[in-house]
Design brief:
By secondary structure, this protein is of the alpha+beta class. It contains twelve helices and six strands.
């Protein structure tokens, strides 16, 4: 039976080849038409440019400069935020992606009319409100940013973080990349300053509440550490992330890729014809 099956398979294959050869001219024409239509469609899609920067968490954010001091102070260090470096790195990356930071940046820079330009009346300076579209909110802006504009990727081997913005305007893509990195640094820097201030206040109260000199000496060392952390955060603009490779204004688009539109159209053109031909053939058999 096996040779008969193989013979039948080869017979079906030969019929397919013969069919393709008979309609080769039509297939080539449809492939050319589909490819041309795909390329034409690609010109109707807005070009996208990607600006990216390579970052690394700073030593100050990770607390590496303080590890020696905090490590010698035992349990008291945990009371003033002597957390693991890995947790602080995760916090920094989460802040870079965070809803709060993104919405704050969108609001501060008035980006909603840019993000939803098709719903913004630039002449009247107001939103085009209809039954289908309401006024975009900051939450809507964050959703657009999070899904299609901003991308954060981490290389766990090297510790490097790639932060990128993809947008139709290459200059804005670069500006937003730099702006969000700067906003993240400022946000975490201010948090560190406020945290150290609270810790110093707590330690001062703890010092006043004890008369044991050894405990006071330990508390003073912790206070000294917090004061140093506060000074470092105050004077360091790159508190959370240090830029290893800064973003530039991209010159080449990342989409649409016209070669893919060409290939997809060239395949889709004959494919649609094949489906229509097969359906008609099946209907003809059924109607007999």
């Amino acid at each position: 039976m096996l040779p008969e099956v193989n013979q039948q398979t080869y017979s079906d294959f030969d019929r397919v080849i013969a069919f393709l050869l008979r309609h080769m001219g039509l297939i080539v024409m449809l492939a050319g038409f589909g490819g041309g239509a795909g390329v034409a469609l690609s010109y109707c899609i807005s070009r996208q440019f990607r600006a990216d920067a390579v970052l690394i968490p700073s030593d100050e954010m990770l607390g590496l400069n303080q590890n020696g001091i905090l490590g010698n102070l035992g349990g008291l260090a945990s009371l003033v935020g002597g957390g693991a470096a890995g947790n602080k790195q995760n916090e920094a990356i989460a802040t870079l992606r965070s809803r709060e930071l993104t919405m704050s940046y969108i609001e501060k820079n008035g980006l909603l009319p840019i993000l939803f330009h098709d719903r913004w009346d630039s002449a009247a300076k107001k939103w085009k409100v209809s039954s289908l579209h309401s006024t975009p909110s900051l939450e809507d802006g964050f959703t657009v940013f999070d899904k299609s504009i901003r991308m954060v990727s981490e290389n766990h081997k090297t510790g490097l973080i790639t932060f990128s913005i993809t947008w139709t305007d290459p200059t804005l893509a670069k500006i937003w990349t730099d702006g969000l990195i700067s906003a993240t640094n400022d946000h975490l820097r201010m948090q560190a300053i406020e945290r150290s201030g609270r810790n110093i206040e707590y330690l001062q109260k703890a010092s006043d509440a004890t008369s044991v000199m050894e405990v006071r000496a330990t508390i003073y060392k912790l206070m000294e550490t917090e004061i140093k952390k506060q000074m470092v955060a105050t004077g360091n603009k790159d508190y959370a992330f240090r830029v290893v490779d800064p973003a530039i204004v991209p010159e080449h688009k990342v989409s649409p890729v016209r070669s893919l539109f060409l290939i997809s159209g060239a395949i889709l053109g004959p494919g649609i014809w094949w489906v229509i031909y097969s359906v008609r053939k099946v209907r003809a058999k059924v109607s007999r």
